[in-house]
Design goal:
about 300 residues, about 40% helix, single chain, alpha/beta, seven-stranded parallel β-sheet, 12 strands
């Protein structure tokens, strides 16, 4: 069983080998765009005639797009799908029009954790032009507060702990497995007051840190954001970064639409790249997205077979 036509709305990052695998699930030649669409109208144009659409986290697919695509049966998000609020696809509209939406989890965490920990080490040692304190420091002298202990937060916590960092966490729900490994739960206010490094791992559009929370941080705290877009009130963040010797570390994904502005803030270590994007991540992402396509087709085939047998 195949889709009639599979379309990649933007640069989904698949390798040539992965594209060949994807083609086996499309009756017509797949259409994969190497350049992201520049407008909502261009998204709609690319979706025409497709019953399967693949899209990265960068491009919104709205109710209007779904309404205007009568052939659409499946949207494969080549990114994580945590919940309806954080998704760049209008999940509610997709359900209404009986369009299945799937995402891929945990494909870029390894590379992200590697780069952000490397940047933290460079900052402690004074490599790259910035140094946290007057003398070089070691990781084992730090307390790291991890906010959000999902896949990425859990990986960051374990990696930091393995390097000797004292790790505490705050999450909506307690994590007994992490606590058994010595990663202690703290209420948010306590975590903010007592951590040298605060690292956020939260769903898109989550704004957890405001002026009140920034006021709890000690001077010289290092803030790391791994989420898609800021996890903080931007105005409060600007004020916090302009007072004292506070530091922040994030990549282009973490900065979101504020990348150009944030890149000019002193003591903010910013890279105009995606921290977790690597050859290995591309392969994991493509394998996950293609597996989702296959599972959807197999489910449809099973459903059709059951109806024939009834």
């Amino acid at each position: 069983m195949k889709f009639k036509k599979i379309v990649g709305i933007d640069d989904i990052g698949f390798t040539e080998a992965s594209l060949r695998k994807l083609q086996s699930f499309s009756a017509e030649p797949i259409a994969i765009s190497a350049v992201d669409p520049s407008s909502s109208e261009e998204v709609a144009e690319r979706m025409k005639g497709a019953d399967c659409v693949l899209v990265s986290w960068r491009t919104p697919i709205t109710r209007r797009h779904i309404e205007a695509a009568p052939d659409l049966k499946y949207i494969g998000m080549c990114c994580s799908l945590y919940d309806e609020v954080s998704a760049n696809v209008d999940i509610a509209a997709a359900k209404e029009f009986q369009v299945k939406v799937s995402g891929v989890r945990d494909y870029a965490d390894d590379g992200m954790v590697e780069l952000l920990l490397a940047q933290l080490i460079f900052l402690l040692k004074g490599i790259g032009g910035l140094q946290w304190q007057a003398e070089a420091r070691e990781l084992q002298s730090l307390r790291m507060g991890v906010i959000g202990l999902g896949a990425t937060g859990g990986m960051m916590a374990r990696a930091a702990q393995a390097l000797g960092v004292d790790v505490v966490y705050f999450s909506r729900s307690r994590q007994p497995d992490a606590e058994e490994r010595g990663i202690r739960f703290r209420k948010l206010a306590d975590l903010l007051r007592t951590s040298d490094v605060v690292t956020t791992h939260l769903p898109r559009h989550t704004r957890l840190l405001g002026a009140q929370e920034f006021a709890l941080l000690r001077e010289g705290t290092i803030l790391i954001n791994t989420s898609i877009g800021p996890t903080f009130d931007v105005e409060a963040f600007r004020a916090w970064m302009s007072s004292g010797r506070n530091f922040a570390i994030m990549d282009a994904v973490g900065a979101g639409e504020f990348g150009d502005e944030f890149s000019r803030i002193p003591r903010l270590i910013f890279h105009d790249l995606v921290a977790g994007w690597s050859q290995e991540a591309r392969v994991r992402l493509a394998e996950g997205a293609i597996a989702n396509v296959r599972l959807h087709l197999e489910a449809g085939e099973s459903s059709a077979e059951a109806k024939r047998s009834a």
